[in-house]
């Protein structure tokens, strides 16, 4: 299994707005080969810290998604988000291979 976490900070007063966006996400990634799960995590002590947590069958499956036209289309839409403060946020991405469970 392969884990990809994208951590980003938003102004605390905009956290609920971002959560709503993810609750109504397109779910296109859910159909990708090798995709297992998606969760949006919120830091309990710092509500403006959010993490997109995705689980994949393998690194190769994740990379296949990340190189796809659908991935590019979804991320282009984010750049056009009306709130330019949110549109300009660049997440810190960390990738992990599961070595024991």
UniProtKB/TrEMBL annotation:
PROSITE patterns: ABM. It holds the Pfam family ABM. The lineage of its organism: Bacteria, Bacillati, Bacillota, Bacilli, Bacillales. Keywords: Monooxygenase, Oxidoreductase. Residues 2-90 form the ABM domain. This is Antibiotic biosynthesis monooxygenase. PANTHER family: HEME OXYGENASE (STAPHYLOBILIN-PRODUCING) 1, SIGNAL TRANSDUCTION PROTEIN TRAP. It comes from the Bacteria. GO terms for molecular function: monooxygenase activity.
């Amino acid at each position: 299994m392969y884990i990809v976490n994208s951590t980003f900070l938003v102004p605390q007063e905009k956290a609920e707005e971002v959560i709503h966006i993810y609750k109504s996400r397109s779910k296109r990634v859910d159909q990708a080969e090798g995709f297992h799960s998606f969760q949006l995590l919120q830091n309990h002590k710092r509500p403006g810290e959010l993490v997109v947590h995705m689980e994949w069958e393998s690194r190769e499956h994740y990379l296949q998604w990340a190189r796809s036209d659908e991935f590019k289309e979804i991320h282009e839409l984010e750049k056009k988000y009306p709130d330019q403060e949110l549109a300009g946020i660049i997440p810190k991405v960390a990738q992990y291979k599961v070595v024991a469970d």
